[in-house]
Amino acid sequence: MRIVRLITIFTTLALSVHAQVQSISGQLKAADCHFLIKNDGKDVQTLDQKITLRAVSEKDTVVINSREQVYGSGYRSYHLEFAYTKDHPDRPIQANSIEFLNDKDELIHRISLLKNDRTMAESEQTRTLRVRYMAVSLQGIPLTLLDDVAVINFLP
Q: pTM here?
């Protein structure tokens, strides 16, 4: 009986320590992914990649009869988030479109970042950081498509 009690105490302590050590993204149930990320065809050294579910808010301002009206909306959208290192930290990834390719380098899907409904955010670009963080909205992209994606290429 004493051995069972010791095993129970040990298991409880081990689980509580594991819960405390787990990363924020792990606690929020972000999905790990392992895409080859490229910037205009050149490999980007990624440190971490996740697919996350984020809350997104938008606001539109309309002027009617010289009166300004503001409309807001919110929704949830999946985002590809990743951390990467740059050889030249003053030149972050800047893209107008993103290509999704399979393991044979065949184009599966392309999205434009120039449309209002597509967003890409990067860590503060005014600082010369060795590690940068980026999030790209996957709004409108079927998640099952991502199962066939091996390479994500950011195009200027």
A: 0.71
